[in-house]
Write a structure and sequence with these properties.
This protein has one domain: TIM Barrel (Alpha-Beta Barrel), CATH 3.20.20.100. With about 350 residues, it is α/β, with parallel strands linked by helices. The strands form two sheets. Strands 3-4-5-6-7-8-9-10 form an eight-stranded parallel barrel, surrounded by five helices. The chain contains twelve helices and ten strands. Helix 1 (about 30-45) links the parallel strand 3 (about 15-20) and strand 4 (about 50). It has helices at about 30-45, 60-65, 95-110, 130-145, 155-170, 190-200, 230, 235-240, 245-260, 265-275, 290-295, 305-315; strands spanning about 5, 10-15, 15-20, 50, 75-80, 115-120, 145-150, 175-180, 200-205, 280-285. The radius of gyration is 19 Å and the shape is globular. The chain starts with a strand and ends in a 30-residue tail after the last helix.
C-alpha cells in the first residue's frame, strides 16, 4: 500500500485507514468478527485505526482495544470525543475542559492503552470556546496521554479559527481534519479542502463510498436487508429513491461502473482512488465490516487514476457539487442557519 506523511507531523501512514463506526451494535457484527477485520487490516498494511467514544456507545472502542492487544505500538490510533456517549446526559458531552478530561480517561480505559495518537474533536461545539477545548487538549499532549490533536466535520471557517486560536493562545495546533468526501458529495472541494491545504492541515476522509452508494449495492433502487441504509435510524430517508438526490445517484452508477472497468477497478475501488487523488487528502477511511469487503477495497490504496478518467468523473459530477443535500444532515450544520437564529426574538 502507498504511504504518505500525516500532514506536517512527520508520522507515516498508509493511504487507507480503517474506520470502525460499523463495529458493534450499530451494524450487528459480533465482537469476534470485528476483531478479525481489524487484524486483517493490520496484516494488509493499514496502520491508522479510527474510532470514537460515541460509536455504539463506547463498544467500538472496546473492540479496538481488544484487537490491538500486543500490536499497539504498530498502530496510529485515532479516536474522537464531544458527541454524547449513549444517552445524552448533562455535562457529559461537548468541548468543555470538564468533559475533555473525563472523556479521554474513559477512552483510554476502553482502548486499553496509555496514549492516543490522534484525539479529534467530533463535530464543532458552539457552546464551548475553542480556547477552552484546545487548552484542555494541550494539557493532555503535555501529559503524554495524547500525541496529536485533530478535528472532525469542521466547516472551513472553524478550521481557520482553530489555527488562529492555537497560535494566539499558545495551544497545540489542530493537525488533521476528518471530513465526508466522495464522488457523490464533492462539497468539500469548495472551501474545506482548499482551506486545509492552505493551512497545512492533513485531511482524513470518511463516507468516501457515500454510505454504500458507491459500492453499487443500491443499483436496483432497493435497500438490501442488513445494509447500512436498512439499519441507520435515518437511512431510509437518505435512500428514498423517489427523491431527486437518490434518483440522480442511481442514474450515475452504471456510467461510473463503466469508468471503473476501464481503469481495471471495481466501482468502490474507483471511488476511493478518486478521493485519494485530491492533493489535500492523505488518508481515506474504509468502513469494512467483513474481511471480504476489506479485501475488495485494499487495491485502492495502490491505484492511480489516469487524468482522462478524472476528467470524465468531473463531467458526470461537477467539482464542488453534492448530489443530495440529505448527505449533509449527518454532518455539521452551522447553527446560524437554523430558523431560530435567522429571526429576532419578539
Amino acid at each position: 500500500m502507498q504511504r504518505t506523511m500525516l500532514g506536517r507531523t512527520g508520522v507515516s501512514v498508509g493511504r487507507l485507514g480503517l474506520g470502525t463506526a460499523q463495529f458493534g451494535a450499530w451494524s450487528g457484527t459480533t465482537r469476534s468478527e470485528s476483531v478479525r477485520v481489524i487484524h486483517a487490516a493490520l496484516d494488509a498494511g493499514i496502520d491508522l485505526i479510527d474510532t470514537a467514544d460515541a460509536y455504539s456507545a463506547g463498544e467500538a472502542e472496546r473492540i479496538v482495544g481488544s484487537a490491538l492487544a500486543g500490536r499497539r505500538d504498530d498502530v496510529i490510533l485515532a479516536t474522537k470525543f464531544s458527541r454524547p456517549v449513549g444517552e445524552e446526559r448533562l455535562n457529559r458531552w461537548g468541548g468543555s475542559r470538564r468533559w475533555v478530561m473525563q472523556a479521554v480517561e474513559d477512552s483510554l480505559r476502553r482502548l486499553r492503552t496509555d496514549w492516543i495518537d490522534l484525539y479529534q474533536i467530533h463535530w464543532f461545539n458552539e457552546d464551548a470556546d475553542l480556547d477552552e477545548t484546545l487548552g484542555a487538549l494541550s494539557d493532555l499532549v503535555h501529559q503524554g496521554k495524547v500525541r496529536m490533536v485533530g478535528s472532525s466535520v469542521f466547516p472551513a471557517e472553524r478550521i481557520v479559527e482553530a489555527q488562529w486560536v492555537a497560535r494566539e493562545r499558545g495551544h497545540v495546533r489542530v493537525v488533521t481534519e476528518q471530513m465526508p468526501y466522495s464522488v457523490f458529495d464533492r462539497g468539500a472541494e469548495i472551501a474545506r479542502l482548499p482551506t486545509c491545504r492552505r493551512h497545512g492541515v492533513s485531511v482524513i476522509t470518511h463516507q468516501s463510498l457515500n454510505g454504500g452508494w458507491l459500492t453499487g449495492k443500491y443499483r436496483r433502487g432497493e435497500v438490501p436487508e442488513g445494509s447500512r441504509a436498512d439499519r441507520w435510524p435515518h437511512g431510509r430517508e437518505r435512500f428514498d429513491f423517489g427523491r431527486p438526490g437518490p434518483a440522480a445517484k442511481l442514474e450515475l452508477l452504471d456510467p461510473l461502473a463503466e469508468l471503473a472497468a476501464e481503469a481495471g477497478l471495481t466501482l468502490a475501488q474507483l471511488a476511493l482512488a478518486f478521493v485519494l487523488e485530491h492533493p489535500a487528502v492523505d488518508v481515506a477511511l474504509v468502513g469494512a465490516k467483513t474481511i471480504e469487503q476489506l479485501e475488495e477495497l485494499l487495491p485502492a490504496g495502490d491505484a492511480q487514476l489516469d487524468p482522462a478518467i478524472l476528467d470524465r468523473i468531473d463531467e458526470l459530477v461537477p467539482p464542488g457539487r453534492c448530489l443530495d443535500p440529505a448527505d449533509h444532515e449527518v454532518a455539521y450544520v452551522m447553527p446560524a442557519l437554523e430558523r431560530a437564529q435567522r429571526r429576532r426574538p419578539r
